[in-house]
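FAQ: What does the model actually see?

It sees only this:
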Amino acid sequence: MVEGRLELEPEVREIFKLIDDGKNFLLSGGAGSGKTYSLVSVIRQVIAENPTIKVACMTYTNAAVKEIEERVNHKNLNVSTIHDFLWDNIKHFQKELKEAIITLANDENITRIKINDLNPVPDNFFDDLEEKIKYKEFVRIREGIISHDELIIVANYLFQKYPKLNSVVKDKYKFIFLDEYQDTSGMVVETFLTHFKKSKRKNIIGFFGDAMQNIYPDTVGNLDAYDDDVIKKIAKKQNRRNPQLIIDLANKLRTDGITQEPSTDPNAPNMEEGVVKPGTLLFLHSNDNDISKVEKFLEVNYGWDFKNSKDTKELNLTHNLIAGKAGFKSLMLIYDKDHILSFKDRIKNYIKDKGISTDFSENSFGEVINTLQQGKTGPDLKKVSPTNTMQAFIDDNEELFNYAKTLNYSKFSKIYVDKDQLLDDKKQDEDDENKKDSKRDSLIKHLFKIQNNISLYQNKRYNEFLRATDFRYKITSIASKRTLKENIESLIAVGDKTIEEVITDANEKGICIIDDKLNDFKEKKEYLYNRVKDVKFSEFQKLYEYLEGQTPFSTQHKTKGAELDNILVLLDNGGWNNYNFEKMFLGTASESVMDRTQKIFYVCCTRAKENLAVFFHSPSDEVIVKAKDWFGVENVISIE
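And it is asked to produce this:
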C-alpha cells in the first residue's frame, strides 16, 4: 500500500482506490460525520503523493475556505468559493465572455441575463466597452458587470462551447474537490461531470456533502442523475457530534438510505468513557405561544442558559419571527414590509409592460400616478392603483405616502430594497469572519462601522479600535489620544439618539467619517435613508448584536454548519408556504414541501451536541401521536 494510506479512515482509503482507477467520486456523510476531516485527509494525501501538481478545493462560504486553508497550508493548494474558482478560470477570455453574454441575453429561455430595451442585442454591443467584463457583487450588464447568478450561467455556457477551456482547467488542476456540493448549482455540477468529458485530458473530480442538508433553493441537491460510470458513491455513516437520542431521531428523518451510527472513536465529541452520550431529546407543546415560558421551563428543569449564546440557540424559520424578540422590528419593517415601495414597483412594471414611452424624468411619483390613473375606471384603474395590502399600509402611513409622492419619479423608481441589505452575513458567533461580497447596503455598512468602533473600545480591544477608527489619522500626540478617548466615550452614550444623530456625532468627532458611499446612498436612496434615520440607534445596536451572533436567536437556515450544546427549535412556519411542520409530522405535505421541511428540521436537530428541544404551539392529537413515536412517549411534555 502507498505510504501513509494505512493510517487513513476506511472511507478515505476507498476514495484512493477510486483515484488509482481514475474515477470521480462522491463522499456522502450525514451531520457530524466529519466530512471536512475526510476532505482535508484526502487533500493532504494527494499532495503527499503528488507534490508537484496543483489541487483546487471549492466550498460554499469564505469561512469554510479559511478553515480548509488553515488545516492544509500548501503552496500548490488553491482554496476558494465556487464563484471565485469559475471566475478565475474564465476572466482572461474576454472575447469569448462578451460573445457569451450577448448570446445568452438573446436566448429567450435565459431570464437572468437580459439587456433592457435591446432585443436582439447586436453582436457588436460590447465593441465600445473600454473596460473588461467584470465580476462584482452587483449586476450592470450594459456596463459589462456580471454578478453571482450570471457568472454561473456564463461559465456553464463557456465550458459547454469550448472543449479547450475544459482542457486548460484539467491541465492546471489534476484534482478538483467540491465541499458541500449539495448547495451548489446544477450547472456547476454539469460543468465538471458533463462538459469536462469533452476534453480527453485526465483529472479527478471529488464531491463531499450531504443531500439531507440541502436547504437552499435552486441548488443541485443530490447527484442521483449521474450513474456509477460518471461518479462512484461512498457513504460515511459515523456520527461524531450528536448523542444517541438525536442520532435516532435524525435517522427517522433521513430519506437517502444512510443510517448513521455513533462513532467508534473514543475521542469523538459525542463519546464519554467509550460510550456514546445519551443526550436529552424533548418535544414541548402548549396552547400558549409564550416562548419565555418554554425558555423558563428549560432553564429551571434542564439548566439551559439562554444568555450564553455560544452554547444555546433558539432557532426560528425566518428573520421576521426573530426581529421583535431581538429588538430590531422597526428596521425589519422598513426593509421588508414597505408597501409604498411595493406600489412603486407596481407602477414601474405597468409602465414597462405597457411599453409607455413618456419621459417621466422630471415628474414626481405623485404626478406619474395621476397621469396613469387619469381617465381610467374599473379594471384599468385597478391596475395602476394600490392593492388592498398596499392601500392598508398607505392608510396607516399617510404622511410617508404624501412625502413619497413628492419625490422625483426617475430617482425613486430605481430604489431597490430587500431584507438581505439589512441582514446579510449574520455570524454564528463573534469569532466567525464575515464573508466577502456582502449584500448589506452602504447605510447599514456605515452603521456597522460606527458600532464596531464602539464595541472594540468597550471590550478594551484598544489596538484594534485604533486601527478601525477614522480618528487614527489625527493621532499625533498624547493630547490627541486624550481627545480620541473623550470622543469615543461620549459617543458610547447613545441614549435615545436617532441613527442620523449618531452618524453626525461620529462624523464630527472623527470616529467614523461620512464618506462618498454614504453620501451617494443619501442622494440616490433618499426615501430609504429618511425612513431609517429617525429610528433609534439603540435599535440598530440590537440588530448588530443579532448579526454578530451575540444573541440566543438564529434562523434555521443560517445555523447550518454550526454546532452548539443546546438547541431549541421553534416549529412555526411564519406564514412561509414553502414549509409546513404540521404536515411534515402527519406526512400529508406535498412532495416538495415535505422535502424542504424535513431537511430543514433535520439540519436543526443535528446541530445539538448535548440537548435538543423542539416547541410546537397547539399541536393536533395526530401530531402528538407522531411526536411520541419520534421522540419517545416520556419526552413529549405539555407546558402550561
